[in-house]
Design brief:
Length: 507
């Protein structure tokens, strides 16, 4: 049963007076449960409990933390249809997506459990002493990774499970030895509470310290109070550029600045060679229509920008892409505000000089369904107008028809940082792509060859991040087991007696 309360160190409480409800975007009406925003006192309590828990939790062996993570996965699965139904009620997403995202969440938890079952992930480094070295002796040095401290995680609007309460940020932080306080996304507060209840059960079953996990509800002010709490040592965020930048600035202004690992906006440029379009334009149109509209375009890796060289084959491809895209049945967006944002930003781009709307869904739409849009513009016009470079969060893409490869590279060089860049080419194009690849790798975190950017594999080799504003620190990934590196820092022990060293540094 959903209570609408905040989970403070394992206990569900609600002492505040500010209330809100989630929305069923399919019915365009509020859901019945009333949720209570956390008070500043409750935020402070969660922070202090997390800090006390950290003193113990950071010393718990990885094999025990692995049992904790696996127990969370078990308890989430035990929620059964109740969790799936709440997910669909609050997001408007279909059951298949709910099942798939739950599966990804479970996989992430179990992956981090396997990772920390031994200490290899720490990358321990040993430099033996050389007491007889001339002219100066060398001391024994041993370096390892230790957790930063309590982490604040902000739930994502577009992934109610995999990027939220028990998602990748939480799983990796708990694996590293950091307690977590989740700020639930207001659109998915019910889904959050169910998952929080599963984590609480796992805490109890595995004997983890009280305060290792808390979850709070609320508005912007609650998030500000959380980031300002002096016992919070890092922040994980997935969302808009505005939201991520605000948290980044807030954290930098603290008396003790802390890192904010924010994964933010991206238009994910796709470069298509004329040769590829000429040989398989119809196939590409169908493939990319599916990618552009997947999940109603509400993915951070949605291909919002297609770059190619102008020509007869390109003109035909643009028309076919528009036809294939608007033929796909519209889907519900996550929230009325997200639909408003989609229409506003999409309208802002298509109203710019030189932009032509080639295709827009014209049929009837339910309240929060999105009309897909394909637009096109010349490379010259795109270069002159940064308003065309902004992300339109939804089933929208703009095809830029460049006069030549030099103009195309100039556009890539002028883009903001991106999560992904994609190359669509034929084998005999490879020698001509060196300049494009060189430009792309300076602007993106992941380059895809002859594929689509949508679909982010959870594995060690995945890089989900990129130059700002794709993320606030392009050296780290938000997906895959290497994301644990966000929540640790290196420390060296010099000339230490064996009895005082951590167990994983004794050899």
């Amino acid at each position: 049963m959903i209570t609408g309360k905040n989970c403070i160190g394992g206990k569900f409480k609600a002492t505040g007076t500010l209330e809100f409800r989630t929305i069923d975007p399919k019915k365009n009406q509020h859901n019945p449960t009333v949720f209570i925003e956390a008070t500043k006192e409750e935020v402070n309590s969660a922070g202090e409990l997390a800090w006390e828990a950290f003193k113990t939790y950071r010393r718990i062996p990885g094999i025990q933390r692995a049992k904790f993570l696996n127990s969370i996965a078990d308890e989430i699965m035990a929620l059964g249809p109740e969790l799936l139904n709440m997910y669909m009620l609050e997001s408007g997403l279909p059951e298949g997506r709910a099942v798939g995202e739950r599966g990804r969440t479970i996989f992430q938890l179990r992956s981090f459990a396997e990772l920390v079952s031994n200490d290899d992930w720490r990358g321990n480094t040993f430099d033996a002493a050389q007491p007889d070295r001339k002219p100066l002796p060398k001391d024994d040095l041993r370096k390892t990774m230790i957790p930063l401290g309590p982490v604040a995680v902000f739930g994502a609007s577009n992934f109610p499970l995999a990027y939220s309460t028990a998602g990748g940020d939480t799983a990796s932080a708990l694996a590293a030895g950091c307690p977590v306080i989740v700020k639930s996304h207001p659109m998915h507060a019910g889904t959050n509470e169910l998952v929080a209840s599963a984590i609480v059960k796992a805490v109890e079953k595995t004997g983890m310290p009280k305060g290792v996990f808390s979850s709070i509800n609320g508005s912007v002010q609650v998030g500000i109070d959380l980031v300002n709490h002096q016992k919070i040592k890092a922040v994980g965020f997935t969302g808009s550029i505005g939201g991520g930048r605000a948290l980044f600035d807030l954290a930098a202004k603290r008396e003790e600045p802390i890192p904010v690992f924010a994964e933010m906006g991206s238009i994910n440029p796709v470069i298509m060679t004329p040769n590829a379009i000429s040989k398989r334009g119809s196939e590409l149109a169908k493939t990319y229509a599916g990618s552009i509209t997947l999940g109603t375009g509400q993915f951070c890796t949605n291909p919002g920008l297609l770059l190619t060289v102008k020509g007869e084959s390109t003109a035909a491809f643009v028309q076919e892409l528009a036809k294939e895209t608007i033929a796909i049945v519209p889907q519900t967006m996550l929230h009325p505000n997200i639909k408003k944002g989609y229409e506003s930003k999409g309208g802002d781009v298509t109203s710019q000089d030189g932009v032509e709307v080639v295709g827009k869904y014209k049929g009837d739409l339910d309240a929060n369904e999105a009309a897909s849009v394909i637009a096109t513009v010349s490379g010259e016009a795109f270069l002159k107008n940064p308003k065309m470079h902004q992300e339109v969060f939804g089933p929208f893409s703009i095809v830029v028809q460049c006069k030549d490869e030099m103009e195309l590279i100039q556009i890539i060089d002028g883009l903001e940082g991106q999560l992904t860049g994609t190359l669509i080419a034929e084998k005999n194009d490879d020698l001509n792509l060196v300049g494009i690849v060189d430009s792309l790798q300076n602007r993106v975190g992941r380059i895809i060859y002859n594929g689509v950017p949508t679909g982010v594999e959870v594995c060690p080799a995945m890089q989900h991040g990129g130059p700002y504003p794709a993320s606030t620190d392009s050296r780290f990934t938000a997906v895959g087991t290497h994301s644990i590196k966000r929540w640790v820092r290196p420390i060296s022990y010099q000339s230490f007696p064996m009895g005082l060293l951590p167990d994983h540094l004794k050899k």
